[in-house]
Amino acid sequence: MLVTPADNPYEEPRSGRLTAWGNAQLAGLVPPDDAAAAVLGADERHRVTGLPGDGPGEQHGLTWALGRLRVLGVKGLRLALPSAGHPLGLTGPKAFNEQAMRAGEAVLAVGAPLGLVPELEEYGPAGDRSATVLWRCHEVNDTPPADVPSLHEAERELAEGLREATVLLTRLDVAGAGPEALRALDAYRRRGHSEPLAPGYPPRAVRVLESARQVSALLAIASGGHGAAVSASEMAARQSALAPLRRTARRAQVAAYNALVDERDDR
Fold it and tell me: 45-49 and 106-110: which strand pairing?
């Protein structure tokens, strides 16, 4: 089964790691090997294929691939977190957008019309699973990404979104809904605070990203059937109410990860 970033709001999207640490490396703020190790995280292996000039099936490690992107004129990276009906951060063409939609994430280069989509393969027993990632490079349209807010806009939207999510959880009485909800709340408290982005990112971007993760985690709890028993129609109404907040949280994550590039371009 394909797992996308929306399936686990407590995990940092791999495209987010590549965007953040790739930007830090391209800006000369971290050594290439350190950036590659941060992108790898707990995964077993990452490879990149389809770069301009590659032969059929040729694959490269992250350090080499980031260096190659620099040679190709790439000055930075931007995150895309698309979902059904919301091509957030994408530029086209249709074939690339469709692959990014299936993955739920992608990385777009700044300075060259290229995009990277991760293909994830997981293996091993439950509780001890490993993953390998193959990043497929594609040509993309050289147009502004779809629906990406500024960091200032994202922070303002999130402030209201976090208030709405908190009110909704209180209304659902999630904390009193039993062991399953308590386990979800505990997972949020233990994993809701992760390491900040990467060197060079402005403090506001770190703050916005943390708030976006809080909203995403709260929404995952609210939409997971926790709280008082509800009818099918009530559940549908709940999901409809949550949808705009999910979009707000994703937009804020994209704005935060893109801040090192976008804030630099605004200066």
Answer: unpaired
* pLDDT band for position 123 (cuts 50, 70, 90): confident
Those residues with Cβ within 8 angstroms of residue 40's Cβ, 6 or more apart along the chain or in another chain: 46, 62
Q: Where are the alpha helices (DSSP H) in 107-202?
A: 151-172, 179-191
Q: Please, are residues 26 and 75 in contact by the beta-carbon 8 Å criterion? A: yes
Q: Write down the pTM of the prediction.
A: 0.86
Interior/surface letters 14-33, b for 16+ CB within 10 angstroms, e for the rest? bbbbbbbbbbbbbbebbebe
Find the range with the poorest average confidence among 125-134, 145-154, 203-212: 125-134
Residue found under tokens 């992250």: 62
Comparing 167 with 57, the larger pLDDT belongs to: 57
Q: What is the pLDDT of residue 201?
A: 96
Q: Which own/partner pairs from 97-101 qualify as long-range (CB within 8 Å, at least 24 positions apart)?
A: 99/136, 99/138
Collapsed DSSP state (helix, strand, coil) of residue 83: strand
Closest among 142, 121, 148 to 132, alpha carbons compared:
121
Residue in the block written with tokens 């590549």? 18
In one letter, which amino acid is 179? P
The residue assigned the tokens 């390998």 is: 132
Query: Cα(233)–Cα(61) distance, rounded to whole angstroms?
Result: 49
162 band by pLDDT with thresholds 50, 70 and 90: confident
Can you tell me whether residue 91 is helix, strand or coil?
coil
